[in-house]
Design brief:
Elements: H1 2-23, E1 32-37, E2 51-52, E3 57-59, E4 63-69, E5 86-88, E6 94-99, E7 104-106, E8 109-113, E9 118-128, E10 134-144, E11 156-161, E12 163-165, E13 168-177, E14 182-184, E15 189-192, H2 198-201, E16 203-207, E17 210-215, E18 223-232, E19 235-244
Parallel strand pairs: 8-19, 11-19
Antiparallel strand pairs: 1-10, 2-3, 3-5, 4-6, 6-9, 7-8, 9-10, 12-13, 13-17, 14-18, 15-18, 16-17, 18-19
Length: 247
């Protein structure tokens, strides 16, 4: 009976140990380990100004801090819903640090540039002093970039040619669509290429992820460049559409 009881305890112990190991995140090889002592604003995370203050909070003057809890990851994309300049430090939690000036309102929501870096941070454990009082925290962090396959790279160039409309050859049209759930910001810039008159007559319509063009004027050799911001969830990019007349 005692042997059976001991065997059950051993199995249970192994099971609990496995579960605890599963809860601990896998540290990537490029992660940087840092011991942060409270109240020392000279010890900051990466190139940010984030330090741990005397209240055991991450604090910053020019960054945004997001507490992702235990559901974060070292490869998490930017989370901009709840940002603060002071957040409680909790061992076992993930955090994100973004540069506040890089956050823009794009198509009605906060978004971070696809080519800008930020930090994913994991708090490993507390650091204690000789009196067994909390004196800081051990953290691991990585510098990250957004990974969004739905968005083209920053300042990508897309060529588009206007074609005669099927039911009216005197009108030329074109359309371009980004992947579903992308949102085009309606604040676009239109530039005439080589003093093209197309800039003054082309009609542009934006509908969610789609932008369409219509030209009913005679503009031989006409060309315009349309610069726009496109958002997918909390990340955005800048795209240049070069639109040419077929005349």
């Amino acid at each position: 009976m005692n042997k059976l009881y001991i065997s059950i305890l051993c199995v249970a112990s192994l099971f609990l140990s496995a579960c605890n190991n599963d809860d601990e995140p896998k540290i990537p090889t490029d992660a940087i380990a840092l011991n942060m002592i409270t109240g020392n604003n000279n010890t900051t995370i990466g190139g940010s100004d984030v330090y741990i203050n005397s209240s055991l909070n991450f604090a910053t003057s020019y960054c945004g801090i997001a507490d992702l809890g235990k559901k974060g990851a070292f490869n998490a994309n930017p989370s901009l819903n709840q940002l603060a300049q002071e957040v409680a430090v909790t061992p076992g939690n993930f955090y994100q640090i973004t540069l506040a000036r890089d956050i823009q309102s794009v198509a009605g929501a906060r978004a971070y540039p696809v080519d800008a870096s930020y930090y994913n941070v994991y708090v490993d454990s507390w650091i204690y002093d000789k009196n067994n009082d909390i004196d800081g925290a051990k953290i691991q962090y990585v510098e990250s970039y957004p990974s969004i396959k739905e968005l083209p790279q920053w300042d990508s160039v897309i060529n588009l040619t206007l074609r005669p409309k099927k039911d009216d050859v005197n009108v030329e049209v074109a359309e371009y669509s980004f992947p579903n759930k992308c949102k085009i910001d309606d604040d676009i810039s239109v530039y005439g290429v080589n003093n093209s008159s197309l800039k003054d007559v082309i009609e542009i319509k934006i509908d969610e992820n789609r932008i369409s063009f219509r030209n009913a004027a005679w503009t031989p050799g006409g060309e315009v460049e349309v610069t726009m911001l496109v958002r997918y969830e909390s990340v955005y990019t800048r795209v240049n559409l070069k639109v040419k007349s077929s005349q």
